[in-house]
Amino acid sequence: MHGGSLQMWQNYFNGNAMIYALDINPECRKFESENVKVYIGSQEDKKFLQQLAKELPPLDLLIDDGGHSMKQQITTFQELYDKVKDDGVYLIEDLHTSYMKFYGGGYKKSRSFIEFSKNFIDKLHAWHTKKVPVDGFTRSTHSLHFYDSILVLEKRKMSAPFDVKSGTPAIVDKNADMLLAKPPDIAS
Hints:
CATH topology of the largest domain: Rossmann fold
Radius of gyration: 21 Å
Strand order of the largest sheet: 3-4-6-5
Helix content: 25-40%
Largest sheet: 4 strands, mixed
Number of strands: 6
CATH superfamily of the largest domain: Vaccinia Virus protein VP39
Shape: elongated
Strand content: 15-25%
């Protein structure tokens, strides 16, 4: 952090938001103000992030615009995703580093954040297959939006989907018996 993004967010929110920042450089504390709190630590340090999670209030928006390494991005997600409120947003930038060897990435490399996040698609759809357990992610994630170098996760309390039929059929469906039959398990 060189202070630019903190100044940008302070300006964007016009001082009407409490901003919590994390950096490894202790000099970044000079950017603290009435509505900016800077924590000093590493995104790779699981224990530090767990302690940070205890100190932070529930968050409306979490933007990971820090670490570029796979370990930093994955560890931060694992430890702080649950700090985002039920109607909040988790946004992670710099995902292009998932394709860079220097940061621990590489095309289709199993330990890259891109490959890690591809599992979110299955977790989002866990209600529809027995092969993926419904978990906290499934129950709290409404949608995923992948952009070039960015992933946005929108949170919302979710529950198992169900069918609702309403109204009276106006057209006789010749395939009605087939529609009432149990659909094949396409996930097997």
